[in-house]
Structure formats: structure tokens, C-alpha cells
Amino acid sequence: MNPLFGSVFWLLVTLGVLVTFHEFGHYWVARRCGVRVLRFSVGFGKAIWKRIGKDGTEYQVAMIPLGGYVKMLDAREGDVDPALAGQEFTGKPVWQRIAIVAAGPGFNLLFTVLAFWLMFMLGKPDLAPVVAAVPQSMAAEAGIHAGDRILSIDGRPVATWSDSMDAVANAMLGRDPLPLQVRGTDGTQRNLVLPLDRLPAGEDIGQYLDTLGLKLAPLPPVAATVLPGKPAAEAGMQGGDRIVSINGQPAAGYDDFQRLIPLEAAKSPHLHVIVERGGKAFPLDITARKESLEGQPVTWVIGVSSLEHEKAVLRYGPAKAFGAALQTTWNSAAATFNMIGKMLTGQASTKNLSGVIGIAQVANASASMGLGWFFSFLAMVSLSLAILNLMPIPVLDGGYLLYYLIELVKGSPVSERVMMAGQYVGLVLLFTLMGLAFYNDIHRFLPT
């Protein structure tokens, strides 16, 4: 699928699912509390599809997919037929209004647990946390060696590459020294400390990761498979041969080998390759060919494939998956609140915010990696929506909850004047936040 089309498509799928679930929470609890629902809308603006349900509610899908709403019978928006007074929103007890407003974020939280539960049952294909360090980087100075396997980070066990990187990324927000335990290729376990306190302030997570220099261990320059009838096989290369050099250029890893083949073949297709087999060096003369592999652009090839990174898949039965889903939801919520707190106090950069463009890109990438990854992505976005909507900003659910809590304390509703002023302040804050996130998305496309 074209990356642009894929990003737009999976963004619409993501927003459609999560907005529907959020608004259904408001709708369902409102109906349970006896409030008449006039309209259930996924999206804003002009309707592109709508129908009237048996309950009298107008259901619609609107043109602008960045949200949705549930319109209830509300005396603040016009006169209410006396016969319907018992179904009007503001006439309900304050605890029912709180329940209706809180139901949207609450349903997003339920969806988060459900999505993580499905992810753990389906399995999320990943790689083992076998790492290396960029030379002269923080990770190298901390004692990370090529082939080290991360066992735990800050006392918490990790089993996959993405889990370990998530833990490191979260720790970077506070920029405190981070303890981790690794096992080397010789089987010895070591306790190390990543000096995150030396990271400069005010950068985003991506730049911090570059500075840290912790990366997935590179594949060795080994020809795992030599394809019959291809140049390497015709020259005598065998599966398991270790490529030492190409035209005198050393190949420290398989990435070097892949880089050197087209680079040297562009000068001359006749390549002098040294391989190691059984502890002995064998010189081979290989004539590269230009081919297109699996629909990819034409390039120079010799017909070998690499070893694969060690796989790690988290997959549980229903009961264990549910427990893991609850724990992951809790940990992710704690990490999100930690990030918000760090940004509010200036300890973390607002460059870490992402908007619609960033979400679309991650949606497409996660969908291409499999259903488990897409459920994980949906869970994180749903959790973010729940937390965002609970923030005490007028126009968001959290703002209305604040008004109703004040009403509980003072015994009377907040005045219309205060609510209107809050709406304007809330809109300014919300558009500022959205503008900052959009700016970050655009800035990531620009050359540094």
C-alpha cells in the first residue's frame, strides 16, 4: 500500500474506532440515566451518512473525522417540551451528569485494556533485546558490548527489543541515571548504569536515543543462504561462509556487506571477495548482476541472504493475557502522566508531542507489522485520548467534570458567565496544544 494512502486509511480506521467507542460511552450512560440523545455523530461538520434510529436518535458520520459528539436534550440550548423535561440533561442529579461525562474517557480506558488483551493473546512479533553500542557513545562508555542481552531495566524484567526501548525512552524524560542488567555473550551477567543525567535538556526522545547510542546488535556478515544459479553460488560460495572483505574493503557486519556490493559493483561488476570457512580464508571472484528482487528497484546482487535477528514473541492464554493487559495499561498510564508532569515543569521537551500526521505515520507502520502491533498502537492512542479528555480544560470532558465537582461543593451550578469564559480559555489552550503538536510533526520532516 502506498505510504501516504496507507497513513490516511489507517488514521481514519484508528479515529473511527476510538471516537465511536468514546462517544458510545457518553451515549450508553446517558440512556441508562434517562437522558434523551438527539444525535450521535462520528466526525464534525456536514453529514455524509445519517439515519434515524428507533429510539429517535439521529446517527451520522460527518466529513471532518477529527472527533465526534453526542448531542443530548439540553435546556441551555433552547426551550424544552414540558413533556420531555424528565429526559433533559441539566435537570438530572449532578452525580448522573458526572457519570455521563466521565463515561467517554472511561470507555477509552476499557478499550485500552481490551486492545492490550487481544494483543497479548494474538502475540506481538518482536526481536530479542540483544544490543550493541555505537563506538564512543554513552552506551559504550557505560559498558555495553556487542551481543549483550538486556535482562532488566530499573529492576523491571524486559523480554523484547520494543519493551526495552520503551523503558529507556520513559527514563529519558527524567534524565536520571538508569540501572540495567545485561548478560554478555560469555553468559556473565553484569549490572550497568546508563548516565542519562548527562543528556542535554530540551531535546526530544529521538535525539536522546541518538546521543545514547544504544542500538540493536548488528547481524554478522554471514551468508546464511546462497541461492542456486546466482553469481555467489557459481563462484563457489557456500551457506555459512563469513564475508571478510569485498575488493579489500572489510565487512564488519551484514550491513557493511549490503552497502559494499552495489558500491563496488558500480565501479566494476567483477568483485574480489574473501570469505572465511572452517577457520580458513578463501578468495572468490564473483561477477555481480543487476536484478529486481521481489518488486524492489533494480540493484546489483550476488544472490545471498543474511541470518535473521533472534525473534521474541509475547503470547499468553486468555487469563494471563488479561492480567498482563491490566499491568501494561497501568504502566503506560503512569508513564504518560510522568511525561505530562515533566513537560509542565520544563524537565521534558514539548518536542515529544505528536499530532495527526505523526499518529497517521505510526498507524500505517504498526498495521504493516501485524495485528498484534496495531492493537498495541490502538491501545496507546485510546489511553492517550482518555487521559487528554480528563484534563481539567474547559471544552474537554475534564473541564465539565471540574464544573460539576464545583457544583457538588458549592451546592449550585457554575454560572453561565463563568462557563462561557472557561469555554474561550479552553479553546485557546486546546488549539495551542494542537498547533504545537502539528508544528512538531512538520518540523520532523524538515532537514536539520
UniProtKB/TrEMBL annotation:
Names of required cofactors: Zn(2+)
Membrane-related topology note: Multi-pass membrane protein
Highest taxon listed in the record's lineage: Bacteria
GO biological process assignments: proteolysis
Transmembrane segments: 6-29, 98-120, 373-406, 418-439
Major localization listed first in the record, in broad terms: membrane
Keyword Manganese part of the UniProt annotation: no
UniProt cross-references to Pfam families, sorted A to Z: PDZ_6, Peptidase_M50
Enzyme Commission code(s) on record: 3.4.24.-
Similarity comment text for this entry: Belongs to the peptidase M50B family.
Name the record gives this protein: Zinc metalloprotease
Organism in which the protein naturally occurs: Dyella soli
